[in-house]
Design a protein that fits this description.
Layout: H1 2-7, E1 13-15, E2 20-21, E3 32-33, E4 37-40, E5 51-52, H2 53-56, E6 62-66, H3 72-76, H4 78-86, E7 91-95, E8 103-109, E9 112-116, E10 124-126, E11 131-140, E12 143-152, H5 161-183
Parallel strand pairs: 2-5, 6-7
Antiparallel strand pairs: 1-4, 2-3, 4-6, 7-8, 8-9, 10-11, 11-12
Length: 184
């Protein structure tokens, strides 16, 4: 849901499940990560096969890792330290889709991650993006679960493709009804 939001900006990139290389002298199996989601502002738009920090001129502004039984410890320790110390990612979040209460956010302050506390609505705020992360329970791609979603600071969820399509269909129906009333 972040892509349409980024499309309104002159710059920015969102990706995930792709390699992120951060060391020019990389050791093939050591100096890269594959975040589940990341966003970078102030970079040219366009597709990439991987994110290469020294070619792009910067690392991600925001990273989200989705926890699982096999990755949770690494995501909460080793990856968190890489994002903090080597990539200097401004904001790092994790979320366990099967245990929705296991979610956290961190903001880089003087080179060290400080916990981001939920606001009064239970959201984690991304100052870098000017958006909020919310835990939303509903159906997405025919699966009912608790999902992590972006929302505006005013509380409006960034719509999924299906939600955008439904809104467009409702607008078309309303316009058609108004046209029929005008003819009558």
């Amino acid at each position: 849901t972040l892509q349409p939001w980024l499309d309104q900006r002159p710059d920015g990139y969102a990706g995930g499940n792709m390699f992120l290389y951060f060391s020019l002298a990389q050791v093939r199996h050591q100096d890269f990560r594959g975040p589940d989601f990341f966003a970078v502002l102030d970079v040219p738009k366009g597709e990439r096969k991987s994110w290469v920090v020294w070619e792009e001129g910067k690392g991600p502004d925001v990273v989200i890792e989705l926890l699982s039984e096999s990755t949770a410890i690494t995501d909460k320790t080793e990856k968190k330290l890489v994002y903090q110390n080597q990539l200097k990612v401004a904001e790092y979040f994790w979320f366990d889709p099967f245990h929705p209460d296991d979610w956290a956010g961190f903001g880089l302050q003087q080179g060290v991650y400080a916990p981001l506390l939920p606001d009064e609505q239970g959201r984690l705020l991304s100052r870098r993006l000017g958006l909020a992360l919310v835990r939303w329970h509903g159906v997405y791609e025919d699966v009912e679960a608790t999902w992590l979603r972006w929302a505006t600071l005013a509380g409006e969820l960034l719509p999924t493709k299906d939600e955008k399509l439904n809104t467009a269909e409702q607008r078309a129906q309303t316009a058609e009804q108004h046209a029929q009333r005008s003819e009558e």
